[in-house]
Amino acid sequence: MTDLYESQRAMRNMRKAAMQRGVIALLDIGTSKIACLVLRFDSPNGTDGEGSLAGHAAARVIGAATTRSRGVRFGEIDAMVETERAIRTAVQAAQKMANTRVDHVIACFSGAEPRSYGLDGAIELQGDQVTEADVGRVLASCEMPPIGHGREVLHAQPVNFALDHRSGLADPRGQSGSRLAVDMHLLTVDDAAVQNLIYCVRRCDLELAGIASSAYVSGISSLVEDEQELGAACVDMGGGATGVSIFMKKHLIYGDAVRLGGDHVTRDIAAGLQVPMAVAERIKTFHGGVHATGMDDREMIELGGNSGDWEKDRRQISRAELIGIMRPRVEEILEDVRAILDAAGFEHLPSQQIVLTGGASQIPGLDGLAARILGQNVRLGRPMRVQGLPQAATGAGFSSVVGLALFAAHPQDEWWDFELPIESLGGKSIRRAIRWFRDNW
Amino acid sequence: MRPVTRDPVRVSADHRGGMPARVYQRSRRNSSRDPAPSRLSFRLQRLWLTPMVRVLTRVGLPVLVVGAALAIWLGDAGRRDAVIAQYNAIKEKIEHRPEFMISLLKIDGAGPEVARAVRAMLPMTLPASSFDINLDAYRDTIRKLDAVADVSLVIRPGGTLEAKITQRVPVVLWRTPRGLEMLDDTGHRVATLITREARPSLPLIVGQGADQAVPQALRLIADAGPLLPRLRGLERVGERRWDLVLDHDQRIMLPDADPLGALDRILALNTAEGLLERDFTVIDFRNKDRPTIRLSADALAAFRQAQSDSLKARASQ
C-alpha cells in the first residue's frame, strides 16, 4: 500500500520534471498498434489555472508516430522483446518528427483486467476550515477493499466530497464545516502487467512518468463535456480488449474491460475463410460490416492467396458472407459490454449516453447494431482536437493516445497528490528511530 | 516475423504431381524486414537529438578538425615559409600592376635647384609601385628643405606623382660670421648667398639673433622711407634692439621698446630740423626721454669754435 503510494508519487515527480523540461512522450500500447505522441508544454507550469481546459492551450503535439504492435495480447505485454522493439520504433519516429529528445513517457494500456471499487471515508475536522492536510487525512481514512493478491492500484481519484450535510463538492478546501466525507474511485489492475510495462519502458532508456488505463483516457478524449458531466459510458473497442468507462460529474466512476476486440474479428475471418491474418485484416477494413443487405450478396470479394493452387487462389466470397462471419463476434463483444454496464448499474444514471470509439468502432453499421444491444443513445466518438495533432491521428483509433495528451495536460487529482497524514506514513520508522537512540545513547 | 528460409526460390510440387518446378515467388524480404531500430541505433539517435551534442557536433567538431588540420599542416617551418612567400608574391604582383605604378614625378611651383633637390630626395627610382612610397615621410623630407614653405603630394591617375611646392620668398639678407643667408619674412633661412651683389635689392641685417626679429626689421625698413637711400643695414644689438646703420659711419640707435615710434620721431625731427644732414656719428634714441647726438670730431671742433666765438663776441660787446 505504502509502496504503491511511493511509486506513484515518484511517477508524479517524474511528470513534474518532464513539465519543467517541457517535452513529454505519450505511449498507447495497444494490441494492434502502438501510438506515440510527443507533447510540448510552452509554459513550464502550463497545467496551472482554473477550469477544465486550463492546461489544454499550453500543450502542443509536435511529434506523432504509429507502428504495428508486436508481442501484445489482450492489451498486455506478451513477448517483451518484441514489444520493446515496437516501442522503440514508435518513439524513434515520433522523436524524429519532433526533432527533439524525449526522456519521459506516460503510457496507457487496455488490458490487465481492470476492476473498479467505490470507497468512502469520513473524518471529524480539527479546525474550522478544511485544509489540504484534512483532505489527505480523509483520503487515508478510506477503508481499503480487499483487492486481492497480485493487484495494484492504477487510479485512486476522489470523486465527491461531502461537508456536513452538503454533498457534491468538487473542492472542499477552505470551506468551513465539522465533518468531511469523501467518495473515492479505485481502479486496480493486475500487478504483473504493470511491472512488465514498467520494465519494458525502462529497457528503452525512457523514464515512466505515469500510467493510465486506456479505458479512462479514451473516455476523457471522446466524451464531450456535457456527457462527462451528466454521465455517459465510453466503449473503447481496441484490437485485443474493449475498455468500458463510465463518467459522471467529470470523474471516472467505473472502469472495466472485455478481453475481446477487433483482432478476434480478424481471427474469425482468417479461420472462416482460410486466409492469412494480414489478408483477413485487409478484407475486414475494406469490406467489413455488420448489416447485410441484398446488395451485399452481389458484391464479391477476391480472397487471393499464394498457395499456387488455382482453385484456392481464385476464391471469391460475397460481402454478405463476410458480414455473417463478423457479426456474431461483434455482437458477442457488445453483449459483454452490456453485461459490464448492467453490473455497473449504468441504467440508474440520469443520462444513458454511450459513445463508441477505438479502432474497431469504425466497422460500418456498428452504431445501428450497438443501438439494439446497448441502448438507443449510442453515437460514434472521435477524439477531441489537440493543438498540433496530425490529421492521420484524429481517427477513432487514436482516442486513447489523445486522451493521454489531455490527461497529461490536465491531470485529475489522485490520492497520491495529497500528503499522507504522519501517523500512517512514518509512525513506525519514527518509533524505530527513537528506540535506536535509546539503545545507543 | 522473419521467414525461416530467406531464399526466395522455392521448390514446390506441380499440382498435377509432375516434376517439382522452380516457382519464383515475390521476395518477402522487404515486407518482413524488422522495422524496429536496433538498441544501438535507437540510443545513437537519441544522443543525436540531444541539443548539446548536436551543437557540439555541428559546430565544435568541424572547427576542431579544421583547426587541428591547420595546426598540423602549419607545424612545419618550411610550409609556413612557403605560405608566406606565396602571399608575398601575390601581394607583389598586385602592387606592381600598371594601375598602381608611378612613372613620373611632376613638380609645380619650385625653382630648378629646389626641384632637383626634391627629385634627389625621392626614396626610390621611378617607375615604382604606389604602395612602396610613403607619402607622409616624403612630404616631411621635402618640408625639411629650407627653401620650401609647404608641399602637397598627390598621386594622379595615370601614374603621376604630383608635388605642389610653395617656395619661401627671400626678403632680407642676414650677414653672419659664416656667410650671407637669405631669410624669408618669418626669419626662416631660405638659402645661402655667396656675394651680396647677387641680390642687391634685398635689405641687409646683421647681428646675433637678427633672424628672430625679421618681421620687426621689415617693418622698420618699410617705415624708414626717406632714410632708405642712405641705409646700409640694420644691426641687432644684444639680441634685443636695432641699430640703423647709415653711410658715412652714421648710426641711429633705436630702443628695444617701440622702435617704430622712435623712428617716426627721428623722421619728424629730420623733416623739421634736418637732423640727418648734421655731421654726427650716433643718434642715440635708446632712452626716448633723453635722445642724444654724438657729433663727429670735426663737427665737435667746429661746434666748440662756434661756441667760443659767440662767447668772445658777447664778451667784446
Automatic annotation (TrEMBL), chain A:
SUPFAM superfamilies: Actin-like ATPase domain. CDD domains: ASKHA_NBD_FtsA (cd24048). It comes from the Bacteria. The keyword Membrane applies. The keyword Coiled coil does not apply. GO terms for cellular component: cell division site; cytoplasmic side of plasma membrane. Residues 24-222 form the SHS2 domain. It is a peripheral membrane protein. One of its GO terms (biological process) is FtsZ-dependent cytokinesis. It is found in: Cell membrane. Keywords: Cell cycle, Cell division, Cell membrane, Membrane. Its main location: membrane. Belongs to the FtsA/MreB family. Self-interacts. Interacts with FtsZ. NCBIfam families: ftsA. Cell division protein that is involved in the assembly of the Z ring. May serve as a membrane anchor for the Z ring. PANTHER family: CELL DIVISION PROTEIN FTSA, CELL DIVISION PROTEIN FTSA-RELATED. This is Cell division protein FtsA. The gene is ftsA.
From TrEMBL, chain B:
This is Cell division protein FtsQ. One of its GO terms (biological process) is FtsZ-dependent cytokinesis. PANTHER family: CELL DIVISION PROTEIN FTSQ. It is found in: Cell inner membrane. The keyword Metal-binding does not apply. The chain crosses the membrane at residues 55-74. Residues 173-286 form the Cell division protein FtsQ/DivIB C-terminal domain. It comes from the Bacteria. InterPro entries: Cell_div_FtsQ/DivIB_C, FtsQ. Keywords: Cell cycle, Cell division, Cell inner membrane, Cell membrane, Membrane, Transmembrane, Transmembrane helix. Belongs to the FtsQ/DivIB family. FtsQ subfamily. One of its GO terms (cellular component) is plasma membrane. It is a single-pass type II membrane protein. The gene is ftsQ. Essential cell division protein.
